[in-house]
Amino acid sequence: MDNQLPEVPLTEHLAELRTRLTRIVLAVIIGTVVAFTKANYLFEILKMPLLKVNPNLKLYFLSPTEPFFTAFKISFLAGFILVSPFVFYQIWKFIEPALYEHEKKLVFPFVIFTTLFFIIGCLFSFYLVLPVAIGFFINFGNIQLGAEAIFSVKEYISFVLRMILAFGLTFELPVLLSLLARLGLVTPEFLVKSRPYFIVLSFIIAAIITPTPDAISQLMLAVPLILFYEVSVFMAKYLYPKSIKYKEEIVSVKEKIEV
To answer: What is this structure's pTM?
Structure first.
């Protein structure tokens, strides 16, 4: 039986962490360099939410260095997305020593689903949330202030990248909770009891992450979070009984009954 995990010194944990972080950094650098060769093409893609709201709007750069650093930021996020399967794999390899042998076999589902949900979150933000958020700001400026919209390259791209990354990360929720249930770290009962608190937390997270005060943009993040939480509860009911912690609890109960 693989019920006992070997104790590993703290120094070995730190060495392993350094190794994994080094590999992640190198991978992101390589991805960034590759994406930088297509920075102009990526820039045209990121303009799509703005042009969808108003095809006549143009972006302006306000300093000599702004185009270069903007291209670098675009390339960094694109490079991270490009190598995200490798990044998630390295994260798994870091926590793998703390897992039982049968739990280590979850590496491929973990990498596949974390990558998939991260990309879905990015696309959801890009195609659905950003046009609504940008349209709200432009209309607010036009109607409330009587001002015309003139966006700088730096501010617009920073806003778009921040939204894409935020949604990509928050869409990892069902994968994270499902994994914790499979490892026996959270129970379905705990998730059910925590549902009311998480609903409130979802709207707080949405209000913080989405820089727009309109309710529609916030709902576009809060509602998927709540739905993903419900999916996680359902998955936990299926995955938790497979965890070794659950099996140990069953054995303990049986031993008490026999006594």
So the answer is: 0.81
